Amino acid sequence: MTNLLVDNFEKHIEDTMIAGDYISDPAAVEQVVRNAPQGIRDLVKWGVNFDKKEDGEFDLHREGGHSEFRILHHADDTGAEIQRGLMEAVRSNPNIEVQENHFAVEIITQHHLGIRVTRRTPDIECYGAYVLNPDTGKVDTYLSKVTLMATGGTGAIYATTSNPNIATGDGIAMVYRAKGKVKDMEFVQFHPTVLYNPQETHPAYLITEAMRGYGGILRLPNGEEFMQKYDERLSLAPRDIVARAIDREMKIHGLDHVCLDVTHKDPEETKHHFPNIYAKCLSIGITSPTSTPSA
After folding, report:
1. Catalytic one of 70, 219, 233, 239
2. Which of 19, 127, 150, 188 could bond 238 through an S-S bridge, CB–CB 3.0 to 4.6 Å?
3. What is the pTM assigned to this prediction?
C-alpha cells in the first residue's frame, strides 16, 4: 500500500522505469502501479496476511530499486503467504473448479479442425486445450470461450534457480506451437540472492530481497564490499544490476558464492524479521555469527 505522505504513483512509476532501464512498457508499468492499491485490498479481502505495526498500519519495507518504503510483506515468506491466501480463496469459490496434477498438452485451434494455420493466419481462434488426466492416462478435451495461459517462465531450465521445478516453459511452447505470439523471451529474471547450498540448487532456497532492504550488505568472503563499483545504490540496486555484479565478482575472484552480511544488525531483530531464513540456515549447519553465504 502506497504511503501517500511521502510516496505517490509518479514516484513508483519512475522507480519502476529506472529499475527496468527504461525498457519497460510505460503503459503496462502505469497500469500495474495505479491498480496496485486495489490489488492489495483484494488480497487482504481474500485472506492474505501482511505484517502490521503496533498501531495497525502496514509495516512497509524498502527493497532494491525503490526510493521509498512501500513494500508489504509477511515475515520473510511473503510469496508463500500470498499463494496460501489465493489458493484458499480459489478453493472456496464455487464457480472455480481446480484440476490438480493435470497437464495441458496442446492448445486447440482451427488447425485441429483441418484448417492450415501459420503465423500469418489472421484471427487465429482458440477453442480450449487438450489436457492429460493422470488418473486415467487419457488426454481429455476442455472446450472454452476464453483460454488464459498463466504458466510462468523458463527458470527451471537453468542449473541453479529459485524458480519451481515446474517452470519449464511448456506453456510458452504450447502458444508458440499454436502459432500464437510470444514476446520479450530474451528477458529471464534471476533473483540475485539465494542460499549457497550445493545440495539444494533446483530450486535453491530464496533469500528475500527484503534482507537487502533491511540493511544486508553484499561482500566478498574476505569481508570486502563490492557494489560501490557497480551502482551508487549499492546493495539496494535493482535485481539485474545486483545479479550481474555478483556474477562478475565470482568470475573475477574464482568464487562459488559471495556473502550477504547482516552482522551489523541486532541479532534478535534479524531473527524476528527473518525467522524462516534463520531456521533454514540452522538446518544446514550455518550457526556462526559471520556473514550468511549467498550466491
Report:
1. 239
2. 19
3. 0.75
Cell digits of residue 102: 493435470
CB neighbour class for 235 (10 Å; exposed up to 12, middle 13-18, buried from 19):
buried
Q: Which three cell numbers stand for residue 203?
A: 530450486
Q: Is 70 in the active site?
A: no
Please tell me the distance from the alpha carbon of residue 269 to that of residue 264, in angstroms, as a whole number.
Answer: 11
Interval 89-128: pLDDT, tens? 999 999 999 999 999 999 999 998 888 888 888 888 999 9
